[in-house]
Fold this protein.
Amino acid sequence: MSHVFLTHRIVVSLFLLIYVIKLILIFANKDTFNKFGKIIKVPEMIISFTFLATGLAMIFVYDSILSNALWIKFGFVAISIPLAVVATKKQNKFLMLAGVLCVFMAYGFAEMHRAGVKKGTIRATEETAAPTRDLTEIELKGQAIYEKNCTNCHGPSGDSQRSGAARLSETSLNQEGIEKVIREGKGFMPKYDKNLISQEDLQALSNYVLTLKK
C-alpha cells in the first residue's frame, strides 16, 4: 500500500510544478505559455487523474483516518484542477494564480491532518479489535505503549495500514529489526528517538509487536 502514498506525493509534486511553471509563463510570455501547454497536455491529464485517484484511494480503499482537514484538502484539490484547466484555456492569469494557491492550501491542510494523526489528536472512529491471548508482563507494558502511539496508523490488530503503515501481522522483521524501524522511522512513520521512547519502553513495544505476527 505504501506505493499508493508514494505515487500520490509524486503526482502532487508534479502537478504543482506544472502549474507553477504555467503561472510564471502566463505572466512572462504567453507564446511560451501556449507552447508549454501543448507539450504538457497529455502528461498533465494523466497526472491530474492520478492525483485524484490516489487521493481517493487513500480514503476509501486503504481506510485512511478522516478529519475536517482532510476533507478541506480534497475540497481545494477539487477546485484547483478545473480552475487550472479554465485558466489555461482562457489564458487567465488570476485564475491560474488561484488554482496554484488552492494546491498550496490543499498541501497545507494535508500536513495539518498528518500532524494531527501523529500527535493523536486525530483518531480513527472505528478500530479492529486486537487479538486476544495471554501476554507477559513486558508484553502488557508494550501493549499500553502501542495503544498510545501506534494504533492510529497500524490499528489495534496491526493490520489497518492507515497512512502507509506496514501490516504488522506479516512482518518478517525480528525484534532487533522492529526496534531499528521504530528508532529510525520508515516511509511515513516518524522516528522515535530516546527523547520520545526510552530503551526499556522500546524493548517492551517490540516484544508486543511480535505478538501481532501471525
